[in-house]
Amino acid sequence: MQPPLSIPLFFNCQEVISMHLQRIQSFIEIARYQSFTKAAQSLLISQPALSRQMKKLEEELGFPLFLTSRTGIELTAKSKALHEELAPLFSQITNIIEHYQTEGRIRFGSTPYISTYYMNDFMPSLNTIDILVTEVRQNSRELLPLLENRTIDAAIVEGPPEWEDLCSSFLFRDHYVAAVSNDSPLAGLEEVSMGDCLKEHQILPAENKRFTDAFQYLAEKTGRSYKSTAVHDHAHSGFVSQGMGIAYFPELMAKHIEYRGITFLPIQERPLYRDMYLASTSPSAFQRLLHVFG
């Protein structure tokens, strides 16, 4: 007598459902990117594995899903109609699952200065949600690829973030202040102008292209030329304290730190700044964090 088949069949049914959902998600991603390569990167699987999934799905459906063209791939008329019905349903399923996972842990990416000088003020509220800083980078823009590949769920980044699938919201504007040696003639002033700054040798960040581009634009706008040295962020204070030039620090950092031999000065009209955004791949995590930071 053969053993009952109910338990194996139950698990087989579960596996079939899971496989169908996976293939449907893959189909939707391919249709979205019009590319197997980009869809595979988004799904974090190999392109051959993705191709096998689609071949299996075509066998199950009984009709081809894609046509090849000079520009890439296209949906067939039938698969296009299928996509139009499946995409909103799958999005709804994803949103429902996220809704019921609102108490899940949020993997957060940050920079040392954001963690220390911004998030610290929100610790009582952050302690009420399950958040863990799992990735730290010197430049917040380095966190965007980690969001895109789902290594982290949320981060505070300099923006606005360009990735269209991110939930994002403006948090605050962080102005830059001038940093000069205590021995500099500028150290006795209440504030400095960009003209004053540009007379000095510039200590500019080697890794922050956004800042250097903005600085170059302001210099050209004033019609002044300048000499500069590009150094790593952590070395700025040493160069300035030794009187080797003028540098620029985020105000959020400058107002919390006292560097020996350095005076921080506001810049007239505050022309140098960066806008900081909360960004997340998860609508539920985004809402929970926005409730804290917003």
UniProtKB/TrEMBL annotation:
Q: What is this protein called?
A: LysR family transcriptional regulator
Q: Which InterPro entries match?
A: LysR_HTH_N, LysR_subst-bd, WH-like_DNA-bd_sf, WH_DNA-bd_sf
Concerning Pfam families, the annotation shows: HTH_1, LysR_substrate
Q: Which domain of life is it from?
A: Bacteria
Which source organism does the UniProt entry give? Halobacillus litoralis
Q: Which UniProt keywords apply?
A: DNA-binding, Transcription, Transcription regulation
Give this protein's Gene Ontology molecular function annotations.
DNA binding; DNA-binding transcription factor activity
Family per record? Belongs to the LysR transcriptional regulatory family.
Q: Name one GO cellular component term.
A: protein-DNA complex
Domain HTH lysR-type as annotated: residue spans:
19-76
Tell me if Transcription regulation is a UniProt keyword of this record.
yes
